[in-house]
Amino acid sequence: MSFYVYILLCMDGSFYTGYTGDLNERIRQHENGKGAKYTKSHRPQKVAYVELFGSRSAAMKRERAIKKLSHQQKQALIISQDKK
Fold first, then answer.
1. 39 with 30: CB under 8 angstroms?
2. From CA 20, how far away is CA 56, in angstroms rounded?
3. pTM assigned to the model
4. What pLDDT, in 10s, does the model give residues 52-62?
5. Is the Cβ–Cβ distance between 45 and 12 less than 8 Å?
6. What's the topology of domain 3-82?
7. For residue 53, which of 20, 28, 40, 59 is within the disulfide window of CB 3.0 to 4.6 Å?
8. CA–CA gap between residue 41 and residue 57 (Å, rounded)
């Protein structure tokens, strides 16, 4: 099974990072206010970044690493993916 690590750009300019096995369903949950406590009050605007992993543990490890990045570092990560 594949797992995704994703970054959502929220309406207030903040980022939310998460992981899931079903990206489309998870995004739908966030948009409906049922995805996470953070995205209930910081409404998602768009999916800004996605990485694919072959295992849950690899996705969780990457999610933790991204969450430790500063806002500016997350922006750089998003921009680097856009250039590919």
1. yes
2. 8
3. 0.94
4. 999 999 999 99
5. no
6. GIY-YIG endonuclease (3.40.1440)
7. 59
8. 28
